[in-house]
Amino acid sequence: xxxxxxxxAHLLPLKTAEASVADIVASPTSTVASxxxxxxxxxxxxxxxxxxxxxxxxxxxxxxxxxxxxxxxSSHFRKLSKSRHQSTASIxxxxxxxxxxxxxSGHSSIAEIPGSPGSLPSIGWQxxxxxxxxxxxxxxxxxxxxxxYLVVTSEYIIKxxxxxxxxxxxxWLPEKPAQETPGATPEPLVVIPISAVVSVFPAESTRPxxxxxxxxxxxxxxxxxxxxxxxxxxxxxxxxMHNIVRAMRVSQHEDSEAILPAPEVLKVLEKIHESExxxxxxxxxxxxxxxxxxxxxxxxxxxxEDSSKKPQExxxxxxxxxxxxxxxxxxxKGKSGEPVHQHTTFGLLTLExxxxxxxxxxxxxxxxxxxxxxxxxxxxxxxxxYRRIIRVFGxxxxxxxxxxxxxxxxxxxxxxxxxxxxxxxxxxxxxGGVRRTLDAYLAAYRCRPxxxxxxxxxxxxPEFQLLPAKKGARYSSLxxxxxxxxxxxxxxFNSLSFRDVDLTVLxxxxxxxxxxxxxxxxxxxxxxxxxxxxxxxxxxxxxxHQEFHALxxxxxxxxxxxxxxxxxxxxxxxxxxxxxxxxxxxxPILNLLRADITICSRLILAGNTLCRSDFADLVESLEAGKxxxxxxxxxxxxxxxxxxxxAPLLDRPQPLQSLSLSENPGRLSxxxxxxxxxxxxxxxxxxxxxxxxxxxxxxxxxxxxxxxEPLKCLEVVDLSGFKISPSTLEDLCAxxxxxxxxxxxxxxxxxxxxxxxxxxxxxSQAAKLCRAVVDGSGTHLSISGNPLEDGIEDLADAIQxxxxxxxxxxxxxxxxxxxxxxxxxxxxxxxxxxSLLSLAGTAPTPWIExxxxxPCSSEMVEALSDFFAxxxxxxxxxxxxxxxxxxxxxxxxxxxxxxxxxxxNTTLTHLRIRNQNLHDDASTLGVVxxxxxxxxxxxxxxxxxxxxxxxxxxxxxxxxTTIVDFPFSATERTSxxxxxxxxxxxxxxxxxxxxTKVGGGDRLKGKEDVVLKDVLNRQFTELDGYIARNRQxxxxxxxxxxxxxxxxxxxxxxxxxxxxxxxEGAMTDQxxxxxxxxxxxxxxxxxxxxxxSSDVGPDTSQPAPYHVxxxxxxxxxxxxxxxxxxxxxxxxxxxxxxxxxxxxxxxFKQMMQGFKASGFAAG
Length: 1163
Known about the structure:
Blueprint: H1 3-10, E1 21-25, H2 47-51, E2 55-59, H3 60-81, E3 130-135, E4 149-153, E5 156-160, H4 163-169, E6 190-193, E7 197-202, E8 210-217, E9 223-231, H5 234-253, H6 263-276, E10 286-289, E11 291-292, H7 294-300, E12 312-321, E13 325-333, E14 339-347, E15 351-357, E16 364-370, E17 376-382, H8 386-400, H9 406-413, E18 414-417, H10 434-444, E19 452-455, E20 463-466, H11 477-487, E21 495-497, H12 532-540, H13 543-554, E22 560-562, H14 586-594, E23 602-604, H15 612-623, E24 629-631, H16 639-651, E25 658-660, E26 668-669, H17 673-679, E27 685-687, E28 692-693, H18 705-708, E29 716-718, H19 726-740, E30 753-755, H20 763-772, E31 780-782, H21 792-800, E32 807-809, E33 814-815, H22 818-830, E34 836-838, E35 843-844, E36 848-849, E37 852-853, H23 858-870, E38 876-878, E39 882-883, E40 888-889, E41 910-912, H24 922-931, E42 937-939, H25 947-959, H26 970-985, E43 996-998, E44 1001-1003, H27 1007-1038, H28 1051-1061, E45 1091-1092, H29 1132-1140, H30 1146-1157
Parallel strand pairs: 15-18, 20-21, 21-22, 22-23, 23-24, 24-25, 25-27, 26-28, 27-29, 29-30, 30-31, 31-32, 32-34, 33-35, 34-38, 38-41, 41-42
Antiparallel strand pairs: 1-2, 3-4, 4-5, 5-6, 7-8, 8-9, 9-12, 10-12, 11-17, 12-13, 13-14, 15-16, 16-17, 19-20, 19-45, 36-37, 39-40, 43-44
Helix pairs in contact: 10-11, 11-13, 13-14, 14-15, 15-16, 19-20, 20-21, 21-22, 22-23, 24-25, 25-27
């Protein structure tokens, strides 16, 4: 069905002079509501009802005769009663349809009327097609005897002094009355070009009359003109208003440029956009002329004169829609005629409601914006482009919030009567559109950017991580609100992290201006809604409570949230408040868990101080079996609280898969552990570091094999700080041997790591653990801080025979005898099973003679040099030193001589040797770098390297083409500069006289300071250039890009990262690390590199993302266009999505089915 042709048939204009008979449509008598927010009881104009009316035809002469009789009767009536003219019959019987507006018209000379014929080019009235004629209300104050008339043609709106002027201006109209004689061509009082009309709408005045307001673009580009016309009856007003609107729609179809802003005004609008959104200065904005109404008019027009007497000049008003912001702009004429502007900016995502009417005659609409913690701002506007404005705001909202359900948009934001819900298709964007939505919220709230990262190297990846604010600051409440609302309804992420981000800034924050239910999440993506009582409870809760309720309630994929150190202290309450303090973000999640409304069942609360109510909620949720992962390490739990927490785990089987209670001041009896393990059959990770307490009366193993064997999914166990008895050790060895022999099977995850630090394990016991691990299983064993020197011979023998795990951590182990240390290093030289080795802080006790620490012995240098040269299995090595108040482990001076063996090593790829006093031997390390061809990463920070040593390292990197990671942080660079300056100050030359004190010490401020900084900066620039060169070469060889910024402080993190990136072929079968394996699907066999906010810029690829072309499907009223069973053509956005989407995309297929069900054709 050609709806455009059908609509045109219903909107035929009046016949011209050549026609003897005009098609007349009876005018409806319904009145038009005063505003889009008027009561529903008011009867409104309906195009549907108009179509159903019967047409009638009368001759022009009959119409004229009726008008003549009516005019005579009304004149006689005025003489008798002196009451207001109430004529209901006039030439207005020639008009067509109704539409609503309101204002009156007076008499004035042509010279004083803005926009009068004197200021317009010569008009050929003979060529004008008259659409409607109607008498206006007389001005009773002036006791005028003549009745002014309004004539609507296809191109102009004309106000004439009298009825005779109508016939003089349009002599081809039906025959004139006999008493009237032809006169000279009259001059109209007002002439308004239809193409220049900005808006026409019912006059919203207090007078008991029926009028319309017409606003149009004046001859001066910086101003608008307005005139008001008042009629005798509402039906007359409605008919003439409809005639005007119909003529406007015809001119709008012709894309007339008369309504466009003048060039000087457009330049001002573009400057506003560029200053407010400089990142999108090249993007085209949407500009609409608008007219202020009601309170908006009173705010922006100080002096309002009666425009019914004569047209009034006013500022021009524009609505400018940018990418994230929109602007209401008022343009005035300056003293010299140049445009002067004032503008108010609103964030597009602060739009709280758009209220309007889709009917073709109702151009009024209201925009309600509300900034968080601030009252509403309502813009009451009107515009001939109201439909396009509604569409633009709808497209913008969908573009900026692509994951929000469209039902929310139609029920909470857009209250437009008669508007059928459109299908907005937005371009696809990775990460669920979080970057676009977050940037839009930050811009709307006028906030600085936040730091974030998306990481796929987690068990529940992808994970969105909000990083801590820089320089020790904390995020503001509006920044946090922007992040939380950007993540709402986002089903791209499986986990969220707020680690080390202070959320207490939102504690007890209430938005007292938020009175509607639209500010709380009461509708889920699957259309689950909360009842009225639940919504009321949410409205009374704090903003922090509301936002985390929204995250858990609205997401269908969110499984884990990391709150580590997000609330270090509970919020304080006033004395008069009896409410128990809580962390506020925990309660809504637990409530939803117990109601089975969310799947967010893994909570990491490490480092937070729990309140009593929070703790009670956790225990209740554990009893209900709703929590699958819980981390309460460093939460200050006492022994009683630990016992209360594990009590639900003693009664019946629980679905808990991860439990961490480490580093709490309380202790839990080890006697509870077997029963806990018996009920946690799905347990994957158990961390009880520093929590278990031995029992004197326990006979046999504290952790029996019978309790460990059923745990087929167990992957990580940390029992550090608990003294392991011999019987317990035997059962642990049996468990290791059984679990590491499992074949590779996705149904049985491999056991990855056993951590027994500070457990009193001797070298002989460590050897038993090593032999229990089956070669090739990839298991990691950590036995740091244990007295391994006792029985070191057994451990060395196991290592030498390659009976060791793949990852071996023996950190901070003190050797009293150097010979025992050398025995260990010789065994490690020959092992072929260890790929990751950490000996950080492990060293023999320094040999001190006459209070002087002696350098490395020749035996030590020989053994370590042989280790570096001949080991053929270790790829990741950490031999950093540790120096502190409680622990001290550094190799003796001269250790750098041992590094010469690296020149021959062809296996080692990652080496960390921090804090080993290499400042005097950096040249040796430089020689090694120039010869080694396998090292990928070298970390030698914290060694107090001097300027000459740095120069040796940089020169060596010039010839090295394999090093792609050479950590030298900004802190390290600053420390290096300060150390050099202090060294110069202490030298033989005194400080110059202009040296000043800064921070308690003397610092050079002369030329030496400037020169040194310049030298260091040049060296750092050269170093960075060599690293960048090597990275580009590696990426070229691999044929793909690599994220080199994933390095972590832990050696196991480095290993798992580099294995994941596929940079070492020999390591592709191993994954390590303290955290869980990445089970996220990976593209092309490789997991995605982490994405940081600093790496992602705004999307400026679309020049006009919100542009709505005139004539697009959906711009016209459903009653004008689509029959309920008709079929439309495919929208351009849908066609683009069809072309780009893969054929096997199930989500796209489902979307296509929905479109077809809605009546859209697929071709």
